[in-house]
Amino acid sequence: MKFTAQQIAGILEGDIVGNPDVEVSKLSKIEEGTEGSLTFLANPKYTSYIYTTKASITIVNKSFEPKNDIETTLIKVEDAYKSFSQLLEYYNSVKNNKVGIEQPSFIAESATYKDNIYIGAFTYIGANVKIGENVKIYPNVYIGDNVTIDDGTVIFAGAKVYSDTIIGKSCVINSGVVLGADGFGFTPNENGEYIKVPQTGNVVLEDFVDIGAATTIDRATLGSTIIRRGVKLDNQIQIAHNVDIGKNTVIAAQTGVAGSTKIGENCIIGGQVGIAGHLIIGNGVRVQAQSGIGKNVKDNETLQGSPSFNYGDWNKSYVYFKNLPKIVKNISEIEKKIDGNS
Q1: Active-site hit among 154, 241, 251, 308
Q2: Domain definitions of the chain by residue range
Q3: Nearest-angstrom CA–CA distance, 314 and 322
Q4: Which residues form the active site (predicted)?
Protein backbone atom coordinates (compact mmCIF):
# COMPACT_ATOMS: atom_id res chain seq x y z
CA MET A 1 0.00 0.00 0.00
CA LYS A 2 1.63 3.23 -1.18
CA PHE A 3 0.85 6.88 -0.42
CA THR A 4 2.31 10.02 -1.95
CA ALA A 5 3.33 13.10 0.01
CA GLN A 6 0.42 14.90 -1.66
CA GLN A 7 -2.07 12.32 -0.39
CA ILE A 8 -0.65 12.38 3.13
CA ALA A 9 -0.64 16.17 3.25
CA GLY A 10 -4.31 16.10 2.20
CA ILE A 11 -5.20 13.74 5.04
CA LEU A 12 -3.31 15.85 7.59
CA GLU A 13 -4.08 19.27 6.09
CA GLY A 14 -0.33 19.92 6.00
CA ASP A 15 2.05 21.87 3.78
CA ILE A 16 4.65 20.12 1.61
CA VAL A 17 8.27 21.22 1.41
CA GLY A 18 9.94 19.04 -1.20
CA ASN A 19 8.67 16.49 -3.72
CA PRO A 20 4.85 16.10 -3.59
CA ASP A 21 5.00 12.91 -5.69
CA VAL A 22 7.44 10.94 -3.54
CA GLU A 23 5.88 7.66 -2.35
CA VAL A 24 6.07 5.76 0.93
CA SER A 25 4.89 2.26 1.82
CA LYS A 26 6.16 1.78 5.39
CA LEU A 27 6.76 3.58 8.67
CA SER A 28 10.03 4.07 10.54
CA LYS A 29 11.75 5.84 13.40
CA ILE A 30 13.53 8.96 12.21
CA GLU A 31 16.96 7.54 13.15
CA GLU A 32 16.19 4.29 11.26
CA GLY A 33 14.51 5.81 8.20
CA THR A 34 15.03 4.16 4.83
CA GLU A 35 13.96 5.03 1.30
CA GLY A 36 10.22 4.59 0.90
CA SER A 37 9.47 5.12 4.61
CA LEU A 38 7.51 7.78 6.48
CA THR A 39 8.62 9.18 9.83
CA PHE A 40 8.06 12.20 12.08
CA LEU A 41 9.98 14.68 14.23
CA ALA A 42 8.29 15.88 17.42
CA ASN A 43 10.92 15.66 20.15
CA PRO A 44 13.68 18.32 19.74
CA LYS A 45 16.37 15.91 20.98
CA TYR A 46 15.96 13.94 17.73
CA THR A 47 16.39 17.00 15.50
CA SER A 48 19.89 16.01 14.39
CA TYR A 49 18.51 12.89 12.70
CA ILE A 50 16.47 14.91 10.21
CA TYR A 51 19.70 15.83 8.43
CA THR A 52 20.79 12.19 8.09
CA THR A 53 17.55 10.23 7.84
CA LYS A 54 16.91 8.31 4.64
CA ALA A 55 13.14 8.42 5.16
CA SER A 56 11.37 9.72 2.06
CA ILE A 57 8.84 11.82 4.02
CA THR A 58 9.07 13.38 7.49
CA ILE A 59 6.18 15.03 9.33
CA VAL A 60 7.34 18.10 11.30
CA ASN A 61 5.83 21.01 13.21
CA LYS A 62 5.14 24.15 11.19
CA SER A 63 7.65 26.02 13.34
CA PHE A 64 10.51 23.78 12.18
CA GLU A 65 13.08 25.42 9.89
CA PRO A 66 16.08 23.32 8.81
CA LYS A 67 19.52 24.80 9.47
CA ASN A 68 21.29 22.48 7.02
CA ASP A 69 20.43 20.69 3.78
CA ILE A 70 17.99 17.80 4.04
CA GLU A 71 16.99 15.06 1.60
CA THR A 72 13.66 14.08 3.10
CA THR A 73 10.41 15.72 1.94
CA LEU A 74 8.72 17.61 4.79
CA ILE A 75 5.03 17.78 5.60
CA LYS A 76 4.47 20.67 8.01
CA VAL A 77 1.56 20.43 10.45
CA GLU A 78 0.44 22.11 13.68
CA ASP A 79 1.41 19.14 15.87
CA ALA A 80 3.66 16.47 14.36
CA TYR A 81 3.03 13.87 17.07
CA LYS A 82 -0.77 14.16 16.90
CA SER A 83 -0.70 14.16 13.10
CA PHE A 84 1.45 11.03 13.00
CA SER A 85 -0.97 9.34 15.41
CA GLN A 86 -3.86 10.42 13.18
CA LEU A 87 -2.07 8.93 10.20
CA LEU A 88 -1.49 5.65 12.04
CA GLU A 89 -5.20 5.47 12.83
CA TYR A 90 -6.05 6.13 9.18
CA TYR A 91 -3.54 3.51 8.04
CA ASN A 92 -4.99 0.91 10.39
CA SER A 93 -8.53 1.66 9.23
CA VAL A 94 -7.49 1.13 5.61
CA LYS A 95 -5.41 -1.97 6.37
CA ASN A 96 -8.15 -3.57 8.45
CA ASN A 97 -11.03 -2.62 6.18
CA LYS A 98 -12.25 -6.17 5.67
CA VAL A 99 -15.87 -6.98 4.92
CA GLY A 100 -17.86 -10.13 4.36
CA ILE A 101 -18.33 -13.48 6.06
CA GLU A 102 -15.58 -16.04 5.58
CA GLN A 103 -16.14 -19.76 5.56
CA PRO A 104 -16.12 -21.98 7.44
CA SER A 105 -17.90 -20.07 10.22
CA PHE A 106 -21.07 -20.68 12.22
CA ILE A 107 -23.80 -18.08 12.70
CA ALA A 108 -26.95 -19.12 14.57
CA GLU A 109 -30.19 -18.54 12.67
CA SER A 110 -31.48 -16.25 15.43
CA ALA A 111 -28.38 -14.02 15.31
CA THR A 112 -28.75 -10.67 13.54
CA TYR A 113 -26.19 -8.33 12.01
CA LYS A 114 -26.13 -5.04 10.12
CA ASP A 115 -24.19 -3.76 7.11
CA ASN A 116 -20.45 -3.79 6.38
CA ILE A 117 -19.50 -6.41 8.93
CA TYR A 118 -16.57 -8.78 8.76
CA ILE A 119 -16.66 -12.24 10.31
CA GLY A 120 -13.46 -14.25 9.96
CA ALA A 121 -13.16 -17.96 9.33
CA PHE A 122 -13.75 -20.47 12.15
CA THR A 123 -15.75 -17.93 14.15
CA TYR A 124 -18.77 -19.07 16.19
CA ILE A 125 -21.75 -16.72 16.64
CA GLY A 126 -24.35 -17.98 19.13
CA ALA A 127 -28.11 -17.68 19.40
CA ASN A 128 -29.77 -14.24 19.63
CA VAL A 129 -26.50 -12.38 19.11
CA LYS A 130 -26.94 -8.80 17.84
CA ILE A 131 -24.10 -7.27 15.80
CA GLY A 132 -24.11 -3.61 14.71
CA GLU A 133 -22.73 -1.87 11.63
CA ASN A 134 -19.03 -1.93 10.70
CA VAL A 135 -18.21 -4.54 13.31
CA LYS A 136 -15.14 -6.66 12.57
CA ILE A 137 -14.75 -10.08 14.14
CA TYR A 138 -11.51 -11.80 13.21
CA PRO A 139 -10.97 -15.57 12.84
CA ASN A 140 -11.34 -18.07 15.68
CA VAL A 141 -13.50 -15.81 17.83
CA TYR A 142 -16.22 -17.30 20.04
CA ILE A 143 -19.37 -15.21 20.64
CA GLY A 144 -21.79 -16.81 23.10
CA ASP A 145 -25.58 -16.60 23.17
CA ASN A 146 -27.40 -13.28 23.74
CA VAL A 147 -24.31 -11.13 23.21
CA THR A 148 -24.75 -7.56 21.89
CA ILE A 149 -21.95 -5.87 19.92
CA ASP A 150 -22.56 -2.25 18.92
CA ASP A 151 -21.36 -0.35 15.84
CA GLY A 152 -17.69 -0.07 14.92
CA THR A 153 -16.31 -2.54 17.44
CA VAL A 154 -13.32 -4.72 16.52
CA ILE A 155 -12.69 -8.15 18.06
CA PHE A 156 -9.34 -9.65 17.14
CA ALA A 157 -8.52 -13.30 16.55
CA GLY A 158 -8.97 -15.79 19.34
CA ALA A 159 -11.02 -13.66 21.73
CA LYS A 160 -13.82 -15.35 23.70
CA VAL A 161 -17.01 -13.49 24.57
CA TYR A 162 -19.27 -15.47 26.91
CA SER A 163 -23.05 -15.32 26.90
CA ASP A 164 -25.02 -12.16 27.76
CA THR A 165 -22.03 -9.82 27.41
CA ILE A 166 -22.86 -6.31 26.18
CA ILE A 167 -20.21 -4.46 24.14
CA GLY A 168 -20.65 -0.80 23.22
CA LYS A 169 -19.62 1.24 20.19
CA SER A 170 -16.07 1.50 18.82
CA CYS A 171 -14.52 -0.88 21.33
CA VAL A 172 -11.30 -2.79 20.63
CA ILE A 173 -10.93 -6.30 22.05
CA ASN A 174 -7.55 -7.84 21.39
CA SER A 175 -6.49 -11.45 20.89
CA GLY A 176 -6.81 -13.80 23.83
CA VAL A 177 -9.26 -11.62 25.75
CA VAL A 178 -11.93 -13.49 27.73
CA LEU A 179 -15.08 -11.54 28.59
CA GLY A 180 -17.65 -13.07 30.91
CA ALA A 181 -15.95 -16.16 32.32
CA ASP A 182 -17.24 -17.17 35.75
CA GLY A 183 -16.09 -15.06 38.67
CA PHE A 184 -13.99 -16.69 41.40
CA GLY A 185 -16.94 -17.51 43.61
CA PHE A 186 -16.71 -20.47 46.01
CA THR A 187 -17.95 -21.16 49.52
CA PRO A 188 -16.79 -23.90 51.94
CA ASN A 189 -19.25 -26.54 53.13
CA GLU A 190 -19.26 -28.35 56.47
CA ASN A 191 -16.49 -30.68 55.23
CA GLY A 192 -14.23 -27.81 54.25
CA GLU A 193 -14.78 -28.46 50.55
CA TYR A 194 -15.29 -25.45 48.32
CA ILE A 195 -18.62 -25.36 46.50
CA LYS A 196 -19.08 -23.17 43.44
CA VAL A 197 -21.42 -20.19 43.73
CA PRO A 198 -23.27 -19.77 40.39
CA GLN A 199 -22.24 -16.63 38.53
CA THR A 200 -25.45 -15.44 36.89
CA GLY A 201 -24.61 -11.86 35.91
CA ASN A 202 -22.79 -10.48 32.86
CA VAL A 203 -20.09 -8.11 31.63
CA VAL A 204 -20.88 -4.66 30.19
CA LEU A 205 -18.38 -2.64 28.17
CA GLU A 206 -19.54 0.89 27.42
CA ASP A 207 -18.41 2.83 24.31
CA PHE A 208 -14.75 3.41 23.30
CA VAL A 209 -13.29 0.78 25.63
CA ASP A 210 -9.97 -0.87 24.69
CA ILE A 211 -9.07 -4.27 26.15
CA GLY A 212 -5.47 -5.51 25.80
CA ALA A 213 -4.37 -8.99 24.79
CA ALA A 214 -5.00 -11.85 27.23
CA THR A 215 -6.94 -9.66 29.67
CA THR A 216 -9.82 -11.36 31.48
CA ILE A 217 -12.99 -9.75 32.81
CA ASP A 218 -15.27 -11.98 34.87
CA ARG A 219 -19.04 -11.95 34.79
CA ALA A 220 -20.84 -10.72 37.89
CA THR A 221 -22.30 -13.05 40.49
CA LEU A 222 -25.46 -10.93 40.26
CA GLY A 223 -25.86 -7.80 38.15
CA SER A 224 -22.96 -6.66 35.96
CA THR A 225 -19.23 -6.20 35.91
CA ILE A 226 -19.01 -2.76 34.25
CA ILE A 227 -16.17 -1.18 32.27
CA ARG A 228 -17.30 2.36 31.59
CA ARG A 229 -16.85 4.66 28.61
CA GLY A 230 -13.31 5.34 27.46
CA VAL A 231 -11.54 2.90 29.81
CA LYS A 232 -8.23 1.54 28.49
CA LEU A 233 -6.94 -1.77 29.86
CA ASP A 234 -3.47 -3.06 29.01
CA ASN A 235 -2.47 -6.68 28.38
CA GLN A 236 -2.79 -9.47 30.96
CA ILE A 237 -5.06 -7.75 33.45
CA GLN A 238 -7.54 -9.59 35.69
CA ILE A 239 -10.83 -7.85 36.50
CA ALA A 240 -12.93 -9.88 38.93
CA HIS A 241 -16.70 -10.23 39.27
CA ASN A 242 -18.85 -7.16 40.00
CA VAL A 243 -15.98 -4.69 39.57
CA ASP A 244 -16.99 -1.24 38.27
CA ILE A 245 -14.30 0.84 36.52
CA GLY A 246 -15.11 4.53 35.96
CA LYS A 247 -14.86 6.56 32.76
CA ASN A 248 -11.47 7.20 31.13
CA THR A 249 -9.50 5.22 33.68
CA VAL A 250 -6.27 3.64 32.39
CA ILE A 251 -4.76 0.46 33.89
CA ALA A 252 -1.35 -0.99 32.95
CA ALA A 253 -0.37 -4.63 32.48
CA GLN A 254 -0.55 -7.43 35.07
CA THR A 255 -2.77 -5.52 37.46
CA GLY A 256 -5.40 -7.50 39.36
CA VAL A 257 -8.64 -6.06 40.73
CA ALA A 258 -10.56 -8.25 43.20
CA GLY A 259 -14.32 -8.63 43.32
CA SER A 260 -16.85 -5.84 43.90
CA THR A 261 -14.28 -3.04 43.97
CA LYS A 262 -15.34 0.27 42.43
CA ILE A 263 -12.69 2.39 40.71
CA GLY A 264 -13.47 6.02 39.92
CA GLU A 265 -13.12 8.11 36.78
CA ASN A 266 -9.84 9.35 35.25
CA CYS A 267 -7.60 7.14 37.38
CA ILE A 268 -4.15 6.00 36.24
CA ILE A 269 -3.03 2.66 37.67
CA GLY A 270 0.46 1.31 36.99
CA GLY A 271 1.57 -2.21 36.17
CA GLN A 272 1.45 -5.13 38.61
CA VAL A 273 -0.81 -3.31 41.04
CA GLY A 274 -2.94 -5.48 43.33
CA ILE A 275 -6.30 -4.10 44.48
CA ALA A 276 -8.25 -5.93 47.17
CA GLY A 277 -11.98 -6.58 46.97
CA HIS A 278 -14.97 -4.50 48.09
CA LEU A 279 -13.03 -1.22 48.02
CA ILE A 280 -13.91 2.22 46.72
CA ILE A 281 -11.15 3.98 44.75
CA GLY A 282 -11.92 7.67 44.19
CA ASN A 283 -11.75 9.76 41.03
CA GLY A 284 -8.40 10.95 39.68
CA VAL A 285 -6.35 8.51 41.75
CA ARG A 286 -2.77 7.70 40.68
CA VAL A 287 -1.25 4.37 41.74
CA GLN A 288 2.44 3.67 41.09
CA ALA A 289 3.55 0.28 39.73
CA GLN A 290 3.67 -2.77 42.03
CA SER A 291 1.62 -1.10 44.74
CA GLY A 292 -0.86 -2.99 46.89
CA ILE A 293 -4.20 -1.32 47.68
CA GLY A 294 -5.96 -2.74 50.73
CA LYS A 295 -8.25 0.10 51.82
CA ASN A 296 -10.49 2.77 50.32
CA VAL A 297 -8.76 5.63 48.50
CA LYS A 298 -9.98 9.25 48.39
CA ASP A 299 -10.19 11.36 45.23
CA ASN A 300 -6.95 12.55 43.61
CA GLU A 301 -4.56 10.65 45.89
CA THR A 302 -1.24 9.34 44.55
CA LEU A 303 -0.09 6.09 46.15
CA GLN A 304 2.95 3.84 46.19
CA GLY A 305 4.15 0.79 48.08
CA SER A 306 2.66 -2.41 49.43
CA PRO A 307 0.64 -1.80 51.44
CA SER A 308 0.42 1.52 49.66
CA PHE A 309 0.43 4.95 51.27
CA ASN A 310 0.75 8.55 50.17
CA TYR A 311 3.33 8.95 47.40
CA GLY A 312 5.08 11.92 49.04
CA ASP A 313 5.31 10.12 52.39
CA TRP A 314 6.60 7.01 50.60
CA ASN A 315 9.43 8.99 48.96
CA LYS A 316 10.43 10.54 52.29
CA SER A 317 10.32 7.15 54.00
CA TYR A 318 12.41 5.55 51.27
CA VAL A 319 15.38 7.65 52.37
CA TYR A 320 15.22 5.76 55.67
CA PHE A 321 14.42 2.39 54.10
CA LYS A 322 17.64 2.29 52.08
CA ASN A 323 19.72 3.53 55.05
CA LEU A 324 18.11 1.18 57.57
CA PRO A 325 21.22 -0.95 58.27
CA LYS A 326 23.28 2.18 58.94
CA ILE A 327 20.54 3.62 61.16
CA VAL A 328 20.30 0.38 63.18
CA LYS A 329 24.08 0.32 63.58
CA ASN A 330 24.06 3.93 64.84
CA ILE A 331 21.29 3.16 67.32
CA SER A 332 23.20 0.12 68.61
CA GLU A 333 26.30 2.24 69.16
CA ILE A 334 24.29 4.87 71.01
CA GLU A 335 22.72 2.16 73.21
CA LYS A 336 26.20 0.78 74.03
CA LYS A 337 27.41 4.24 75.03
CA ILE A 338 24.34 4.76 77.23
CA ASP A 339 24.82 1.35 78.85
CA GLY A 340 28.51 2.12 79.40
CA ASN A 341 27.70 5.38 81.17
CA SER A 342 25.03 3.88 83.42
Answers
A1: 241
A2: 3-95, 101-314
A3: 12
A4: 241 (proton acceptor)
The CATH architecture annotation of domain 3-95 reads 3-Layer(aba) Sandwich (3.40)
For the chain, helix, strand, coil in percent to 5 are 20, 30, 50
Is 241 catalytic? The answer is yes
Q: Please provide the distance, in angstroms rounded to a whole number, between the alpha carbons at the two ends of the chain.
A: 87
Phi, psi at 334, each rounded to 5°: -65, -40
- Structure pTM? 0.81
Residue pLDDT tens, the chain, 342 long? 789 999 999 999 999 999 999 999 999 999 999 999 999 999 999 999 999 999 999 999 999 999 999 999 999 999 999 999 998 888 877 777 889 999 999 999 999 999 999 999 999 999 999 999 999 999 999 999 999 999 999 999 999 999 999 999 999 999 999 999 999 999 999 999 999 999 999 999 999 999 999 999 999 999 999 999 999 999 999 999 999 999 999 999 999 999 999 999 999 999 999 999 999 999 999 999 999 999 999 999 999 987 777 878 878 887 877 788 888 888 888 888 887 766
The fourth-level CATH superfamily of domain 101-314 is Hexapeptide repeat proteins (2.160.10.10)
Q: Let me know: does 50 contact 39? Beta carbons within 8 Å.
A: no
